[in-house]
Task: structure prediction
Amino acid sequence: MKKWRITKYTGGGETTRRAVLLLLLLVTAPVAALGQAVPVDRPAVVTVVMDDNYPPYIFRTQDGQLQGLLVDEWRLWSRATSVDVNLVATDWGKAQQIMADGHADVIDTIFFNEQRAKIYDFTPPYARLDVPVYFHKSLGGITGVESLRGFTIGVKAGDACIDVLRKHGITTIREFDSYEDVIKAAGEGAIKVFCVDQPPALYYLYKFNLDDEFRYGFTLYSGEFHRAVKKGRADILRLVVEGFGKIDSKEIGAIERKWLGTPIYNAEFRHMLVYALFVVAGFLVVLSGFNITLRRKVRAKTGELRELLEALRKSDERWQFALEGAGAGVWDWNVATGAVFFSDRWKAMLGYEPSELRDSFDQWRDLLYPGDSERAMRTIDNYFTGKTQEYILEHRLRCKDGRYKWVLAMGKVVARGEDGSPLRMIGTHNDISGRKDAEDSLRRALTFNAMILEHSPVGILVYDGTDGACVMANHVAADLLGVKLGDLLRGNLKTAEVWDAASPSSPAALALAGHGIQRDDLRLKPGSGGEGMADCTFARIELDGASFLLVIAVDISERVRMYEIMAETEKMMSVGGLAAGMAHEINNPLAGILQSVQSVQRRLESDLPANEKAAETAGCSLESIREYCRVRDVNHLLDAVRDSGQRAARIVSNMLEFSRRPDTARIPVDIHALLDKALELCANDYDLKKKYDFRKVEVVRDYASDIPFVPCAEGQIEQVAVNILRNAAQVLAQRPPGSPAPRIVLRTRLEADMARIEIEDNGLGMDESVSRKVFEPFFTTKVPGEGTGLGLSVSYFIIASNHKGTLGVASRPGLGTTFTIRLPLKQQQ
Result:
């Protein structure tokens, strides 16, 4: 008696599973007969390696012993061939490695594919089985391989389904050591979708009480179990085929019934039915006289048909049970009559009891959301007319509580008339409200993020860290860079000179290299002066294993301009301080000059005894000295020196007064004297580059005689007048040759309880767009470097805020400009 050995392989993990057995005898007998024609030397022992966890074909008991259909079949093979079998069962990856290393003669439970055909010779298939995709009941829409994109698919390591999935572009695959591990991971929630051969899938789903948690999706492909040997080992292949061909079919049948069970309606019954029909037909043709016998046969056959109809009804119930067990509602539509069978699950999905809905097409249409009606009817029509090959419809149906639920309908026409018109259609409904809610939440989140990006007051850009492509940007960033948003999104980090990412020391490169957040002030618009300056922050972000560069740019153009104005103000304050110091220094020698001129005039013109005595001492009379001075015009020269000194003294006094901090105290002021003082100060102001000279401007005073003293801060109003007068002089200097002589008119009038001051020039004038903005801070029509744009805005603040008056402008291009100041005659609190 030959020995039967089972080797327990302890070096591997869990095992693969495969599924459904075909009749081995039909496919192996011819090959076995062929094998008998060529005698071969038989080995004493054949080592067979296979999966050890593929119920019901092969799996282990709780104490680790192997059992299953293949264990019993190989035992029969050993008896039929008188060759010992060393059965090595381990996890599928290990099994393939053992065969590749030459430690086994035969590998069992293997699928055929082109890659394996290069290294193995295969026996004919002995079992055909499906490889389905299963998914958790909380999901929906898993209808084909394309619908798997985005899901993580659980598979067994080394399984043939991995290649099939990858050929369809599915790469999100998670491998486990065995089918049992896949099912356990699914039960623990680690995966929601998995691909497992049908027999082990059903075995473990029921074993772990997960059959109500997961649904059958679709069959990815169907495969066949073979046994294989290494390429060129024809002797072993013939021995394997010959051995299985010798096994009695009854023994094979007994093993199959042991592990696969017995069908409720088996082939013997069908054979009996065919035989009975044949007998009845024979009796009708040959012995028409045996009517009584025929009637008896008919009655017998009628009973059998009733049984068949009952079996069909039960089969239909099982079909509905299978679909509803997967969470789907079932419907069966008689297109010709409009009657529709809705399963209890279909109605319960919407919250209705079985008796609460009519079984008709009109009932479904009444439940349909009005906004989906036209699209639903069009989908049905397109399917019936052949414009679409599949009937798939996502629509909303009204629930019992008045809410609408999203439903995925899938169906198929199963009967058509002779003209091709549809007669019967069956299908399923699946609740996809959860998926739709998730999609709506995602859509709202994306919309919210887009709104944040669009309305953000700062520039935001995101660049791909790999190829540098700009994947996100907003309009603020485009404006800061001075480009269109579309051009910015088509741009690239590596070619954008403004970020200088090619330089390893640039903030962008440092941040992307992982050196933390980087900041720098950059001019984003080259050659634009203060415009386009931005405070830029660079940060590296990670998403799904990919790196990106986030750039946040804050416009600091105004801040830069403020810094420049502050610097200019500091400079002017320094100049003012210097002017004040110089004025003090000039005052001392100027006072000496005026005093000396006065003393000279007294000594020449006065009849003081000391003057006469000094003339006698000099040997001449005082009269002769006076006559000399008259003839030589010395007295006029002395008067000129005195007048010039007094004028210089007034200029110095004005400079000192203007350089002092303005006095905000309001006291009654002679407005005419204030204007004359401002004119005198401006008359000594001229551009060092000789662009303008106030002394060349004709000044016309048109003062009203009834203007009372005006309560105001004298220094501030003087500052306003000086600003306007200087602006007028500068504009007058820009007039083209041939223009009328430059002129400024100072006009005062009494206007109700206000004193009105007009400063009018005959310069170039302004259009309406410029007139509206002259009092805005930093607005100027002068070239860069010649003005800050603050003079008139400060003047407006002084008049409107500090004195509760008004400051306005009237101008026409080519006809000059008039500034009008109105000051209240009564001091306001």
In short: Residues 34 and 242 are 8 Å apart (CA to CA).
